[in-house]
Specification:
Layout lengths: L17 E5 L2 E7 L14 H4 L6 E6 L6 H17 L4 E6 L5 H7 L4 E4 L25 E4 L17 E4 L8 H7 L19 H9 L4 E3 L8 H8 L4 E3 L15 E3 L4 H14 L3 H29 L23 H8 L7 H4 L5
Parallel strand pairs: 2-3, 3-4, 4-5, 6-7, 8-9, 9-10
Antiparallel strand pairs: 1-2
């Protein structure tokens, strides 16, 4: 499938994932749970998975397997891939230990382990608390997309709230404001147009905040939590499923009940607890390193079962850039010399 002239790399909104190692070829990808929208991201596209070179796919769910529809979509998609493309090895890396027995029972043929992609966030992009302590400008910051599962309305009673939100259109700005009427929302630009905040600006807001909020009841790994911790912010969180609190401990977080009064009261408790912001960042960095080494252990269990050599952490090209978004897999396939169809060929791709 290689050619003398490398294929031009391209971007496609559903083609996500990263080739984290070339030899042996290891692909870290997502599971979006959309039965008609590439549920295994790049692995749902025959053009990416149909080659004969055996590859190792490690799937990171973007939601919780406690949801029957999400579980069924993942199981159906993986069984299709295993049947049609048996040359590859497939592994699932769940965010929440509660998902282990469910997924292992549904897919006994493949390996299932606990691992969280938040350990690949960029510490340089979120560079920690100010050297000199300052009185926070914001009582709390909530970095959450505009979606019901984020339960933004639970932050409505928090004093001096900053809401960083995305996933909305200009005509929805009023509805967003109505969820938290007293909040400062820097994403709302001129004429209510959405404005994307770069990591540097998000880190600056975090440095001027007393704590970070995480208020969903059901979610996946949630990058914002690790961004909070890298900025030295303690986290006020509600009980949840999905694995987003994997890096939370008593020394960096407080739990609140899922109602606005409890969230506001818990945020008000943060100063009295006396969290050490520099210690929070240091703890996060140690946890990230531990989780990266766990990935190496998992990968080597899979590789050695196939007679492959073991790999070292230094060999992995982990996916996150400054924006904490995964790189486009198509660029890596281009580097390897694989010919890929043009982007328009994927628009009507048939899913089995």
């Amino acid at each position: 499938m290689s050619s003398d002239k490398p294929a031009e790399p391209f971007k496609h909104p559903r083609v996500m994932g990263t080739l984290i190692c070339k030899d042996p070829p290891l692909i870290l990808g997502g599971m979006n749970g959309l039965p008609n929208g590439y549920p295994l991201n790049s692995a749902s596209l025959d053009a990416f998975i149909g080659h004969q070179r055996p590859m190792y796919y490690f799937f990171c769910p973007q939601w919780s397997f406690t949801q029957p529809k999400y579980l069924k979509t993942a199981v159906d998609a993986l069984k299709d891939r295993m049947k049609r493309f048996p040359q590859h090895t497939y592994t699932i890396l769940v965010n929440d230990p509660i998902d282990l027995p469910t997924v292992r029972a549904a897919l006994p043929e493949i390996g299932v382990y606990v691992w969280n992609t938040n350990c690949t966030a960029d510490p340089k992009a979120f560079s920690g608390p100010p050297i000199e302590p300052t009185e926070p400008e914001f009582g709390a910051v909530y970095n959450a997309r505009y979606s019901p599962y984020k339960r933004i309305e639970l932050a409505a009673q928090v004093e001096r709230l900053c809401l960083i939100s995305r996933g909305w259109k200009a005509e929805q700005a009023g509805a967003l404001r109505s969820l938290v009427p007293n909040a400062y929302i820097p994403n709302i630009g001129e004429d209510d147009q959405p404005r994307v905040l770069p990591p540097k600006e998000i880190a600056s807001i975090s440095a001027r905040s007393r704590c970070g909020l995480m208020l969903s009841g059901l979610e996946g790994q949630t990058r914002a939590i690790m961004e909070y911790l890298l900025c030295g912010l303690p986290v006020v969180t509600t009980p949840n499923y999905g694995g987003r609190d994997r890096f939370l401990t008593p020394s960096n977080s407080l739990f609140a009940a899922p109602d606005p009064a409890s969230v506001a009261a818990t945020v008000a408790m943060v100063p009295a607890v006396g969290f050490d912001r520099h210690a929070i960042r240091a703890e996060a960095l140690r946890a990230m390193e531990k989780e990266k080494n766990l990935l190496v252990q998992i990968v080597n269990v899979v590789l050695q079962a196939k007679g492959e050599r073991a790999i070292r952490l230094e060999e992995l090209r982990l996916p996150h850039k400054a924006s904490s978004e995964p790189n486009r897999l198509s660029y890596y396939f281009t580097e390897l010399g694989y010919e890929l169809p043009p982007p328009e060929a994927f628009v009507s791709a048939s899913l089995t």
